[in-house]
Amino acid sequence: MLKKLLSIAVSFYLALISSHAAACAGHLYLNPDNFGVMGNLAIKLAGLAPPEPIFKLKHPPLAKATLGEESEITVEYERPWFSKDVHMQLKSSKGITLIDKYVALDDYDGTLKIRYLLEKPGHNSIKIQVNGVHKGQSVISSRVIYIQPKKSSTETHNLQVTAR
């Protein structure tokens, strides 16, 4: 009875440790760009570098917009030659209204503009999700752009300066 109880406790302990190890795998990756050519090759061969994204997006992590005015963010994208049915879905938080919520990526690389209207101040964001098929497998890539309201000109003109 005691051996059975001990083996059950050990198996649960090992199961918990393996899940924690899997959750921390992101912290174990190294950036191969910080090393030379040989170091870069060694890191990639050892599996210590994160995999390259299939759908590459380049955008600002943070954008500022004026309340009540339409704004836009420029996003550059790249997709592989053997990918098909690639499209971009856009979702936003409650304080943002998106003009376009679905964009088909027909070209293999290019730029597009995400147009939006900032309605409420606060912590707002736009989630970009690129879906497509690459080498027969469905691939999903997600990114987030955070939106902050610009300070209005009346707030900056009301500053007072005191001299001593």
Question: How does this model look, in words?
Answer:
With 164 residues, the chain is an alpha+beta fold. The protein folds into two domains: 2-46, no CATH class; 56-150, Immunoglobulin-like. The protein contains four helices and nine strands. It has helices at residues 2-23, 25-28, 37-46, 153-157, and strands at residues 56-58, 62-65, 70-78, 83-92, 96-98, 102-104, 109-118, 124-134, 137-149. The strands form two sheets. It has a five-stranded mixed sheet with strand order 2-9-8-4-6, with no helix packed on it. Strands 1-3-7-5 form a four-stranded antiparallel sheet, with no helix packed on it. The longest helix has 22 residues, at 2-23. The mean pLDDT is 81.
